[in-house]
Amino acid sequence: MIIAPWNAPFDAAQVDDLRDRLARARWSDGVVGDWSYGTAAQPLRELISYWQSRYDWSEATARLNALPHYKAEIDGFAMHFLYFKGRGTAPQPLLLTNGWPSSFVEYMKVAPMLADPVSFGGEAADAFDVIIPAHPGFGYSDLPSAPNQVQTVDLFHRLMVEGLGYDHYLVSGTDVGAGVATRMALKYPRAVSGIHLSAVVEPPMNEASPPLSEAESAYQKSVLQWSDREGAYMHLQATRPQTIAYALNDSPIGLASWILEKFRFWSDAGPNLFDVFPEQMLLDNLNIYWTTQTIGSSMRYYYEARHFRPALQSTDRVTVPTSICMWPKELVVAPKEWAERLYNVRRYVLQAQGGHFPGWEQPEQYAQDIRNFRRTLTLR
Questions:
Q1: CA–CA separation, 306 vs 234, rounded Å?
Q2: HEC states along the chain?
Q3: Mind listing the pLDDT tens digit for each residue in 33-78?
Q4: Residue 183 contacts residue 197 (beta carbons within 8 Å)
Q5: By the number of CB atoms within 10 A of the CB, which of 188, 265, 280, 308 ranks highest?
Q6: What does R_g of the chain's alpha carbons equal in angstroms?
């Protein structure tokens, strides 16, 4: 495995092309001014105006390149990751893995807190080595060129063990990343010391499974309600991702609308979206998808999860110590007993505020919850 430092490129021609597309955009009509039909026009127009005329690309490139970027080549596949070395006594390795439509940008508040707690009023003993890899087909990682070409679980594990030399590590994941963390714990329980999750994988059930509790029955109803109200994107991306990929890869306004809606509806931001997610942050995240042309490959993740990922069996159980950290505005909030059907739950916490992007929405609480979990573990 080859690991080398890396810098995000700045392409002036690409910037000119984007601004030209934004200037020539055809805007859709609308019959309401709110979010009830989907992405509201006013905040989208504000974001596009900022992207076209006020977003400083040179400054953004310099800011992003101040981060500790690396690429690892694993059997010919290049995977991007950030590597924040811990500043403290015996930092523990922690892999942070985000979901869709996010990126490492979501973790730019919380990563320094975890790596250098003393600078934020914490204790040196709480320091982590923080590793944030990009999923295959996301951001600056390579795009798979064939169906089911590479396995995220194996790539992330090999990066940690073969590439960075850790014989054990913790994993914290949200959304898609929580699923990756779960399967890493199932496949590599000797290396994974613990997993910290903001979402849970559905446990395999059979006739011998205990009956559902009242809270579990209510949770299953909430899942169905959420799927009916919000799940169109997931069904499309898991069945026909290529159809919409052409439009989103060609239209920056289309891409912005597709992603902005998720930050609005999945977070605890409420109506004041830009108070929680400033335009610069949202555009940093958008730019990663736009400049790398990875919106299509990131959506294929859903298709391949449905069509290629082996289903969990009734005998599967995550024996690795697990901390469940739920946020009230997460897509759905699983009760503890539901999580316990699959996981070795050591801690279960429902936070007071926060949603689907806790690393950005509530970084102090997210960092502290990971620290609290770590303190319950006997680490090598």
A1: 11
A2: CEEEECCCCCCHHHHHHHHHHHHCCCCCCCCCCCCCCCCCHHHHHHHHHHHHHHCCHHHHHHHHHCCCEEEEEECCEEEEEEEECCCCCCCEEEEEECCCCCCHHHHCCHHHHHHCHHHHCCCHHHCEEEEEECCCCCCCCCCCCCCCCCCHHHHHHHHHHHHCCCCCEEEEECCHHHHHHHHHHHHCCCCEEEEEECCCCCCCCCCCCCCCCHHHHHHHHHHHHHHHHHCHHHHHHHHCHHHHHHHHHHCHHHHHHHHHHHHHHCCCCCCCHHHHCCHHHHHHHHHHHHHHCCHHHHHHHHHHHHHCCCCCCCCCCEEEEEEEEECCECCCCCCHHHHCCCEEEEEEEECCCCECCHHHHCHHHHHHHHHHHHHCCCCC
A3: 999 999 999 999 999 999 999 999 999 999 999 999 999 999 999 9
A4: no
A5: 188
A6: 20
> Annotated catalytic sites, by residue?
175, 302, 356
Amino acid at 207: E
Tally Cβ neighbours within 10 Å of residue 73.
14
pTM check: above 0.90 = yes
Which residues does residue 69 pair with via DSSP β-bridges, in sequence order?
82
The fold adopted by the segment(s) 2-18+53-375 is Rossmann fold (3.40.50)
> Do the bridges between strand 77-84 and strand 192-197 make them parallel or antiparallel, or are there none, so unpaired?
unpaired
| Lateral strand order in the sheet of 128-133 | 2-5, 69-74, 77-84, 128-133, 92-97, 169-173, 192-197, 318-326, 343-350
User: Distance between CA atoms of 371 and 177, rounded to whole angstroms?
Assistant: 19
Query: Across-strand partners of 327?
Result: none
Question: Do residues 374 and 349 touch, judged by C-beta distance below 8 A?
Answer: no
